[in-house]
Amino acid sequence: MKKILILIFAICLFLNCSKDDSNNDVNIRLSNVSDSDFENIIVNTTTGDTNYGDIKSNQVSEYKNFNKAYRYAYVELNIGEETYTIQPIDYVGETPLTNGNYTYQLDLVSYEEGFLDLTITLIEE
């Protein structure tokens, strides 16, 4: 009887093992759709900083793999001497992206007051 209980316990334990998140295939590239060259681009999707380097105007980066990402992320970059940042407050109510290829499309929006704002748009591929 004891062997049967151990066997049942082992089977239950095996069946309840969760998927290893390190095999996640959320691949994200950046697209610079602005008229400016972006330098020193850092993206953080909640799993740490990822350096994308520089992306010239109207160019696209290579894909980078993430274990977890959302439809928006922390982004910091330079245009000349100016630093631009997208700073999410939190991801409450957001659903993580499923496996697949995505593009964070980055752009600059100019306001009447004369300042520029960095924007991010998720493109599902």
Description of the structure:
The radius of gyration is 20 Å and the shape is elongated. The protein is mostly beta strands and 125 residues long. Helix content is 11%, strand content 44%. A hairpin with a 2-residue loop joins strand 5 and strand 6. It has a four-stranded mixed sheet, with no helix packed on it. A four-stranded antiparallel sheet has the order 3-2-5-6, with no helix packed on it. The longest helix has 14 residues. It has one helix and eight strands; from the N terminus they run αββββββββ.
Kindly summarize this structure in a few lines.
The chain is mainly β.
Output the helix-strand order: HEEEEEEEE
Overall body shape: elongated
Please give the radius of gyration in angstroms. 20 Å
* Neighbour order of strands in the largest sheet: 4-1-7-8
Helix content: 10-25%
Number of helices: 1
| Low-pLDDT regions | none
Q: Could you report the average pLDDT, rounded to the nearest whole number?
A: 88
What fraction of residues sit in β-strands? 35-45%
Total number of beta strands: 8
Distance between the termini: 54 Å
Derived structural class: mainly beta
SSE topology:
Elements: H1 2-15, E1 26-32, E2 38-44, E3 49-55, E4 64-66, E5 74-79, E6 82-86, E7 100-110, E8 116-124
Parallel strand pairs: 1-7
Antiparallel strand pairs: 1-4, 2-3, 2-5, 5-6, 7-8
